[in-house]
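From the thread on structure requests for the teaching lab: each student submitted one protein with a one-line request. Submission from student K.M.:

"Model Mitogen-activated protein kinase kinase kinase anp1 from Phtheirospermum japonicum, tokens only."
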Amino acid sequence: MGKGSFGRVYKATLKNPTSKYSCFPSVMAVKSAEVSCSGTIQKEREVMSNLNNTSPYLIKCFGDETTMGENGAMAYNLLLEYGSGGTLADRIEKSGGNGLPELEVRVHTRSVLRGLNHIHGFGYVHCDLKPDNILLLPNGRKVGDFGLAKRQKDSKKRKLEPYWRGTPMYLSPETVIDSAQAAPSDVWAVGCIVLEMLTGKPAWDEKNAEGILAKIGAINELPKIPGELSKDARDFLKRCFVRKSMYRFTCEMLLNHTFVDGLDSDDGATEESEDFEQLSEIESMALVYESGGDDSFQDEWCDASEDDSSSYWCEEKESEVVQGEGVIRAPNRYYHRVC
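Reply posted by the TA:
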């Protein structure tokens, strides 16, 4: 499926799903590296174990094993939950640089915040939060890849590390300037991810790491928040993009923000089974409801590019036309903003 500095990731299928292996799903993602080079993966296993492996907003770990590789070297394997819907980065890429509907962004954001809140509650900092590390599954979005995560020590005892962890595009000012990474650093990364989802473009327009780090390290630089975003979206981003980390909103505070608070449905392990691959294929289509006193269900599809209506019909809310942006889910159908 992919490879990195830690090793490779494989899609693994359980050959003999007998009762002996009933604790494993039929398909898993397996991170693998030679034992002598598996320190990062083993660290990830330790972090996931300490996080209690119970949050529906974090990728689950099913254990680890050591096997003999094809070259005769011993390999360490970490068995993880498989993200069948790809990553959030894939979803953003499919938008073609136009960004995702705001309602969808809000739902993604709430899941990420809940996962991150769990991580921070156990005294850890993720340190590498980005769209590539957020996986889409039939039962929701989940934060993954804990190879760079670290414990958040008491601030009075903490010594600054001589380096930072993570990906330049999503680093906070305090990380770039002082190599300091704590819970607020993850919140800054959330802001970068939300801005990227809404606009289809990264938070910084620089193309190379040096240019990005220079922008983040500059005294007065902040990512540009487009004025055409909704008031709630703009305010949410402003709470994330506070240069002084002590004044930045926490995950818990952001979860109470109007941008994510008050969504109609929960987004845990039993919710949000929307197939985002299916959604991306038909997102240019919309079911248009022409309001004229007839509250019956209008089962007629039309091309979004040929209609300037902004109405939605949601079968879950009978005889109600829902106005606004985003995607509304109804049984077996997906409705997208028409204009």
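TA comment: The CA atoms of residues 255 and 261 lie 6 Å apart. The chain has nine helices and 15 strands.
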